[in-house]
Amino acid sequence: MSGYLLEMKGIAKHFGGVAALDGIDLAIRPGECIGLCGENGAGKSTLMKVLSAVYPHGSWDGEILLDGQPLRARSVRETEEAGIIIIHQELMLVPELSVAENIFLGNEITLPGGRLDYPAMNRRAEEILRELKLPDVNVVLPVKNYGGGHQQLIEIGKALNKKARLLILDEPSASLTAAEIEVLLAIVRDLKAKGVACVYISHKLEEVAAVCDTITVIRDGKHIATTPMHDMNVERIIAQMVGREMNQMYPSLPHEVGDVIMEARHISCYDVDQPQRKRVDDVSFKLRRGEILGIAGLVGAGRTELVSALFGAYPGEHEGEVWLEGRKVDTSTPLKAIGEGFAMVPEDRKHHGIVRDLSVGQNITLSVLERFSRLTRVDDGAESVAINEQIKRLALKTASPALPITALSGGNQQKAVLAKMLLTGPKVLILDEPTRGVDVGAKFEIYKLMLELAAQGISIIMVSSELAEVLGVSDRVLVMGEGQLRGEFENKGLTQEMVLAAAIGQTGRQGS
């Protein structure tokens, strides 16, 4: 016996003649956590879909052994019965069902005669949520009543209920707060101690380093290296992922900041469900030409609501004025905002950024389709030229512009949304969490593009939960807390501690 719980040997997977995986090997022991690292499009999620039979046996080449025996699963149900559980990047919860019903979905406890044993399911669901440090969640309420972070932990609870022998976590912390991430890492350590094997996929390499025993790096569908974590550090992981040393996380490109181009005056946003409550409370600020203005703050500070209101995309009641180049402009709808020279890449790419039924190319030209319309038809040639220029400009990895947008990795979907908005030729570009779910190499490319756009005179507003990112690329930083503007700082000698102090309402240094 090899001592391995699972072995994947020579795994190859093709899509339309393009090799997504090219002979990947992976082996994992009971109680071991492997960090699976690679850039967007490297093949991490594809490999895990092979393992969990989202891509069934027969649709790929190679061999999978579980306990030394061939595993030829043709459905996710079969792999789950074998103890292989995957938590996908996109949540698989049913919003209208209760928390307990979601946790037991497909594994319900029944009474004689087939009726569901709700008291037993509710009790077990409460036990699981206590393990996940979520004792305040009412398990009989619909899961839609809870935010993204809670839903992510409920998804993990669903996996724990299935008695996993091998747990695959694909970007599990993307929507979690720092406190929730600590709970998640503690859960993984506890599972390891109980002999459960884990595969941990995350672009947050500090998490990978904190919880993983072994690092496997893949690049362009090929196996690059498998190394014990005690012989690695974050810098070495990055170097293996991108194929080169990255001496700095943030590019340096000088750009000139000019006069004030935009002014937001007295912006207030009211809660959709509780209209008497303000999510943004009388916020005013100015934006200069060619400036990158970072907006920082804790979860719930009102950052997304503020920028959504500027772009006419806030779903609730809001008020205030937006001035551009010395005149008051109407940005009450996204279409009007685009017409005035605004563009926005939203935080929730899946629901607000892409149209899932369209191709990569169709998504890219969606905002400027009239540019290619010729009476009753679309000029396919001109549209194709524009699409290919944007794909090249953003180094977007796609086998063809005709591929469905959903076939791309999360980071490349993000680039497609950015390409779509850049085609509108904006004066003001709003980026809400522009690098969420994006690997370090692609992050560097996005930062570089932001600096290039600023050098061309485009003004950028960037909302980010990563303080290092805000400080790494911004010229000036606004800090929000509980819907109010708590501080405004020139980014000269500014530290994360100073930003956090302002965010929680302590005295901060006020900038110009």
Can you give the helix content as a percent range? 25-40%
So what's the overall shape? globular
Going by CATH, the architecture of the largest domain would be 3-Layer(aba) Sandwich
Structural class: alpha/beta
Radius of gyration: 24 Å
Segments where pLDDT lies below 50 for 5+ residues? 508-512
Task: Reconstruct the topology from this structure.
Blueprint: E1 6-15, E2 18-28, E3 33-37, H1 44-51, E4 61-66, E5 69-70, H2 76-81, E6 84-87, H3 99-103, H4 118-131, H5 148-160, E7 166-170, H6 178-193, E8 197-201, H7 205-211, E9 214-219, E10 222-228, H8 234-242, E11 260-270, E12 278-288, E13 292-297, H9 303-310, E14 318-324, E15 327-329, H10 334-340, E16 342-345, H11 349-353, H12 360-364, E17 373-374, E18 377-378, H13 380-393, H14 410-422, E19 428-432, H15 440-455, E20 459-463, H16 467-473, E21 476-481, E22 484-490, H17 496-503
Parallel strand pairs: 3-8, 3-9, 6-7, 7-8, 13-20, 13-21, 16-19, 19-20
Antiparallel strand pairs: 1-2, 1-4, 4-5, 9-10, 11-12, 11-14, 14-15, 17-18, 21-22
Brief descriptors of the model:
single chain, 512 residues, alpha/beta, Rossmann fold, 6-stranded mixed β-sheet, 17 helices, ABC_transptr_XylG, cell membrane, translocase, nucleotide-binding, ATP-binding
What is shown here, in short?
This protein has 512 residues and is α/β, with parallel strands linked by helices.
What would you note in describing this structure?
- The protein is built from 17 helices and 22 strands.
- The relative contact order is 0.11.
- The protein is 31% helix and 25% strand.
- The protein starts with 5 loop residues before the first strand and ends in a 9-residue tail after the last helix.
- It is globular.
- A six-stranded mixed sheet has the order 6-7-8-3-9-10, sandwiched between helices. The chain has a six-stranded mixed sheet with strand order 16-19-20-13-21-22, with helices on both faces. A four-stranded antiparallel sheet has the order 2-1-4-5, with helices on one face.
- β21 and β22 form a beta hairpin.
- Pfam families: ABC_tran.
- GO terms for molecular function: ATP binding.
- InterPro entries: AAA+_ATPase (IPR003593), ABC_carbohydrate_import_ATPase (IPR050107), ABC_transporter-like_ATP-bd (IPR003439), ABC_transporter-like_CS (IPR017871), ABC_transptr_XylG (IPR013455), P-loop_NTPase (IPR027417).
